[in-house]
Amino acid sequence: MSILVVGSVALDTVETPFNRDEEVLGGAASFFATAASLYSQVNLVAIVGSDFPEEHLAFLRSRPINLDGLQIQEGRTFRWTGRYHLDMNSRDTLDTQLGVYAGFHPVLPGSYLTSDLLFLANIQPELQLEVLQAAPRARLTVLDTMELWIVTAREKLTEVMKRVDVLLMSEEEVRQYTGCASIFAGVRELFALGLKYVIVKQGSYGALLFGTDGTYFSAPSYPLEEVSDPTGAGDAFAGGFLGYLSTVAPQADGRYAADDLKRAVVHGNLIGSFACEDFSIARLRTLTVDEIAERYQRLVEYSHFDDGWHTRSSM
Amino acid sequence: MSILVVGSVALDTVETPFNRDEEVLGGAASFFATAASLYSQVNLVAIVGSDFPEEHLAFLRSRPINLDGLQIQEGRTFRWTGRYHLDMNSRDTLDTQLGVYAGFHPVLPGSYLTSDLLFLANIQPELQLEVLQAAPRARLTVLDTMELWIVTAREKLTEVMKRVDVLLMSEEEVRQYTGCASIFAGVRELFALGLKYVIVKQGSYGALLFGTDGTYFSAPSYPLEEVSDPTGAGDAFAGGFLGYLSTVAPQADGRYAADDLKRAVVHGNLIGSFACEDFSIARLRTLTVDEIAERYQRLVEYSHFDDGWHTRSSM
After folding, report:
1. What ipTM describes this predicted complex?
2. Which member of A216, A217, A302 has the closest CB to residue B218?
């Protein structure tokens, strides 16, 4: 099984109220690939400049990550600088330097065309569309996006939404895109576009899974005492979600079993929680499958309750 | 088993973006008693004015609610007027008329002194303290409060906190009282006061249960398509929580089993969700134990996931 991802590989400078880290490995595709490569092979489509540090390439090569689709072009790597507020739930983008991403067009090596799962990280909808058209055989396509594209490229984004199976959005993004105050009403509008599943990310509150088949699942978040750096948590969520799905087979009708989709959302939350524990991909690069399994078990203890309660004679 | 509650009985005027209801039965003790009386007998301590409608008294009498501790005094009943914002998560208090509450001192009839459980709804900490001192034999004491008392009566409130077992607080109230950005750090400060359990209410995101014995439980919220009126949801939560606990016995050491406390928080969330479905106590007064059991079962389906996931050979 293999997972194709298209997205950014970047150098991030991140300020939190307690720390600052400069020009570390960042970008949605980096977080996603680091996370998903814990489960299966990842086929990466991205671009970096000639200034991209060799150590990052060496790290990516050390994982089951295929870099045939990573373009290395004369020029500067994409750079992002952000600052988190005291509550770590909101941030300001201080600087964005597109560098070589300005003229980027994804090229899919032949070996990528049989990728089983496809993740379109939050780059321009036009580029997402190019990749969708070039890799039409994936059994599940998953789309992420961001406020910028909802505001500046709504039409193209809608075109992409109409062609994928699963959409990842934060609560605020659902409200922003649909104009609905109610998440339930918003998700119904999204379903009208043809999506099969919508996953509504609720930050430190967990995530909700909605399916056109009536699936509804509220996944608890893993409790973290302290968040070091939430950058990339959403991409790590996607890595856990698709990573888990890459380890199971869909049913005869081509759909994944509801239980597997639930487990996948739980993996998403868990991997997202690990991502927050350190800057950049620092925690994800040391993460082991045993650590995921241990946290999975703890989340069961933290969130499950007696499933057999019924009225008693005393009532 | 019986549950003593002291709190407000009021006439509420509530505006939402879609509706308005005038001078309906409100007040923390009304919501709590209506909810908790689905499980056990409630001993009500409160005051109303001579203008308090007979129909409300008739309703309270129609339930297993003991009104011996309800003072009816010449004057006006407490009135509250509030308006909800479009998202229904925040509201403005437009008017508060204390009426007979201005000179209120709770008096506990002898028949109340053997109450097994005690709920101090969000009235002035001084009055909460009076009731605590008058009813020292309860096996579990639960305290609710509100921003007003954190700001204006912090010292007295702290005195009450030091004498009860369980504290109910919203996330914002925990941050406000402790000054901690992290809920985990905040709860540790609260435990230092001697509390055994803290329940952190997260509105539409559910609730967290923390215990000094290491208990941690994240209770999912019951998903509501639409919220008619969130007034009283917190008091209904307390009614479900204490109501459920009134149907089970504590362990030999006097503490409730962790599984029972978890179920109790789930009941709190469920009863809170019912309260939001209509104005005033309208939904709670028609609620049946079978409806609670049905919603309980659905919440299991909505939130539980495979509890046996472990690493597989394919990973």
Report:
1. 0.91
2. A302
Contact A266 B305 (CB under 8 A): yes
> CA B191, CA B198: separation in Å to the nearest integer?
8
Q: Do A306 and B259 touch (CB under 8 A)?
A: yes
Question: pLDDT at residue B302 above 90?
Answer: yes
- pLDDT category at B313 given cuts 50, 70, 90 is very low
3-state helix/strand/coil string of A235-247: HHHHHHHHHHHCC
pLDDT on residue A88: 83
Q: Which residues of A touch B86 (CB under 8 A)?
A: 181
Candidate from B220, B293, B307 with C-beta closest to A220: B220
Partner-chain contact B263 A39, CB within 8 Å = no
Residues 6+ apart with CB under 8 A from A105: A127, A130
CB A135 within 8 A of CB A118: yes
pLDDT tens digit sequence for B221-263: 999 988 999 999 999 999 999 999 999 999 999 899 999 999 9
Tell me the average pLDDT across B13-40: 96
Tally of CB atoms within 10 A around B227? 18
pLDDT tens digits for range B54-91:
999 999 999 999 999 999 999 999 999 999 998 787 89
Given a contact cutoff of 8 angstroms between Cβ atoms, the answer to whether A116 and A3 are in contact is yes
Distance of CA A108 to the CA centre of its chain: 20
pTM: 0.94
Three-class SS state of B314: coil
A220 and B217 within 8 Å at the Cβ level: the answer is no
Report CA torsion sign: A158, A164, A165, A166.
Answer: negative
- Cβ neighbours of A307 in B, within 8 Å: 297, 300, 304
Contact B226 A304 (CB under 8 A): no
Instruction: Return residues 256-275 of A near B (CB < 8 Å).
Output: 259, 262-263, 266
Q: Do you know the residue count of chain B?
A: 315
Residue ranges of chain A with pLDDT lower than 50?
Answer: 313-314
Contacts of A216 in chain B (CB under 8 A): 223, 302
Helix (H, G, I), strand (E, B) or coil at B90: coil
Contact with chain A for residue B213, Cβ under 8 A: no
Alpha helices in chain A (DSSP H): 28-36, 54-62, 125-134, 147-152, 154-161, 171-178, 183-191, 233-245, 258-275, 282-286, 289-303
